[in-house]
Write a structure and sequence with these properties.
A 6-stranded mixed sheet has the order 4-3-5-6-7-8. It has a two-stranded antiparallel ribbon with strand order 1-2. It is elongated, with a radius of gyration of 31 Å. It folds into 2 domains: 411 residues, no CATH class; 156 residues, 2-Layer Sandwich (Transcription Regulator spoIIAA). The mean pLDDT is 87. By secondary structure, it is an alpha/beta fold. The protein starts with a helix and ends with a helix.
């Protein structure tokens, strides 16, 4: 129904009358989780802290209404916040009016790209961003975030640079100016976080950790001794905002917008799928593209920077018992209520405590188990992960995403361009075919199996592999097993025709069996079947082997000491 496609919330809105209680409670839990995260991520993005809170409001509601996942919670994320800072900080001063205008433009452009990809059904693109790319990028992002926050932990006063090396250089140049009270606040906050994570993992550790750091700082009067404070949040309601629509800005942000749109989709879809494995829900990837796109488009005009799905908040939402996306809307309503009552208390929040929280967030980004497993199981995936990691550290951050994605696609195409082409013989005493060079081979007839699609990039490998196998076996008849071929393009058809004609010129006849329906249809339309000959095409392997073996040279069969096929007995008896 077209109405459901335009307004997907129609499918669940009627359930709210039965689920509102659990959704309301799940929303309250989510509001307490996102409050410290929103402020922390805004610091990473280089925007005022209230923008992180606003990003936890507007995009959450839009994504909940127009996405497909019942449990995905959108909002500010670590990786996207870092990409925004690394992209815009080289153009404008962080937190300035010009900077915020560019951030809103970047958000709008990435949203339009996401919406466009969803409308034209390009959801499958998310599948080409491999897990190795995600691991490499998030690990590199974690290190970048950690280095950028060390200045706040140490109480240093300098402007962060746009790249990793310069940031490290600034850190070492200024480290002698450390501030002992700032270090103490950060250390106590960090200790509280570690203890909470270890002994009370279900408690809101970030919120409690920041409260502990604030109480220590204010109780001992360190805020009067030079410890920087966050300042009060100005409003609980997102104000209107206007992106910078200048042509120069649009031109400068096309590449970063594409990177953020792909990164945002990658995060949202992977998180939605991970939660769906537990909930049993089916995810519509294209609808997630649309939901994320609309959330960023609306957010750009309501003081929200680029957002995506959050694994932490989505996991908390599911664990808290949420049944419908109404829980995400409840989380926003609760957040507004909380800000109305305690928003002014943010004035006492020390920046070093926030930095300690961000350090823990960065550490959690590094998945050590997956890194070890990737290195142990696949050197190719490990190489992709390592190159993406290095690109994240040493080149422009948005370019690192493209590097990893292009590498993943390249490896995938290389794999599909080299389908398995193997000689097959039946196991003695059975019809089970194996690729064992030590088993007896027929002198006149060989079988070759192709596992993979026959398209333009694969045909050179297929032809050379068949030539190599035939050069060793030098049989007069070749049967190609085609059940592993699911697709063929024009180049594949032409290559097959050329191979058939080439081998006929050598007095070698090629036969085919188990051709898939779609492949057969294209071979009929192209006229390839007329060249091959219908008599050389078989529906079953048994029928093909029986007919081909019965037409072999009986004299050669009689002298052959091997019994490769069951039908060989008939040929030997015929000559006796």
């Amino acid at each position: 129904m077209w109405l459901v496609k335009v307004f997907p919330f129609i499918t669940w809105i009627h359930e709210v009358k039965n689920t509102w209680r659990v959704d309301l409670f799940a929303g309250l839990t989510g509001a307490f989780v996102v409050l410290p995260q929103g402020v922390a991520f805004a610091m990473i993005a280089g925007v005022p802290p209230e923008y992180g809170i606003y990003t936890a409001m507007v995009p959450v509601v839009i994504a909940a209404l127009f996405g497909s996942s019942r449990h995905l919670i959108s909002g500010p994320t670590t990786a996207i916040s870092l990409v925004i800072f690394s992209t815009i900080s080289v153009i404008a001063e962080p937190s300035s009016k010009e900077y915020i205008g560019l951030v809103m433009l970047l958000t709008l452009m990435s949203g339009i790209m996401q919406l466009g990809m969803g409308l034209v059904r390009l959801g499958g693109l998310a599948d080409f961003i491999s897990h190795s790319v995600v691991i490499g990028f998030t690990t590199g992002a974690a290190i970048l975030i950690g280095v950028s926050q060390l200045k706040h932990v140490l109480g240093l006063r300098y402007q962060n640079a746009a790249n990793f090396i310069d940031n490290l250089k600034l850190l070492f140049e200024n480290i002698g100016s450390y501030h002992i009270y700032s270090i103490s606040v950060a250390a106590v906050t960090l200790a509280a976080l570690v203890l909470l994570i270890k002994f009370k993992p279900k408690w809101p550790d970030m919120l409690i950790g920041m409260i502990v750091g604030s109480l220590l700082n204010y109780g001992l009067g360190w805020h009067k001794q030079g410890v920087k404070l966050l300042g009060a949040l100005p409003s609980a309601i997102p104000p209107l905002s206007m992106p910078d629509f200048s042509f120069h800005s649009i031109h400068a942000l096309v590449s970063p917008a594409m990177a953020i749109s792909m990164l945002g989709i990658m995060e949202a879809v992977s998180i939605a799928r991970a939660v769906a494995l537990k909930s049993g829900q089916k995810i519509d990837v294209n609808q997630e593209f649309i939901g994320q796109g609309l959330s960023n488009i609306f957010g750009a005009f309501l003081s929200s920077y680029a957002s995506s799905g959050s694994f932490t908040r989505s996991g908390v939402n599911y664990s808290a018992g949420a049944k419908t996306p109404f829980a995400a809307i409840c989380a926003v309503l609760w957040l507004i209520v909380i800000l109305l009552f305690i928003g002014s208390l943010a004035a006492y929040l020390p920046i070093p405590a926030m930095a300690a929280v961000i350090l823990v967030v960065a550490y959690k980004l590094i998945n050590f188990r997956h890194i070890v497993e990737t290195v142990r199981l696949s050197m190719q995936d490990a190489a992709v992960m390592f190159i993406t990691f290095l690109s994240t550290l040493f080149v422009e951050l948005e370019f690192a995403i493209f590097v990893g994605t292009i590498l993943s696609i390249g490896l995938y195409l290389n794999k599909t361009a080299r389908p398995r082409v193997l000689p097959h013989v039946p196991n003695p005493g059975s019809r089970q075919f194996v690729s064992d060079p030590h088993l007896p081979q027929c002198q006149q007839f060989g079988i070759i199996r192709i596992d993979g699609d026959l398209y333009f990039a694969a045909m050179n490998h297929v032809e050379s592999s068949i030539d190599s196998i035939h050069a060793i076996q030098t049989q007069g008849k070749i049967l190609i097993l085609c059940r592993g071929i699911n697709m063929i393009d024009l180049m594949g058809v032409e290559s097959l025709i050329n191979m058939v004609n080439k081998y006929r010129g050598k007095d070698v006849e090629m036969f085919f069996c188990k051709i898939q329906e779609e492949v057969m249809m294209k071979m009929h339309k192209s006229g390839a079947i007329n060249v091959i000959g219908l008599a050389n095409v078989f529906e079953s392997e048994e029928g093909a082997i029986a007919q081909i073996v019965s037409n072999l040279d009986k004299d050669v069969c009689n002298k052959c000491p091997q019994r490769v096929y069951w039908e060989c007995d008939a040929n030997k008896k015929y000559n006796k």
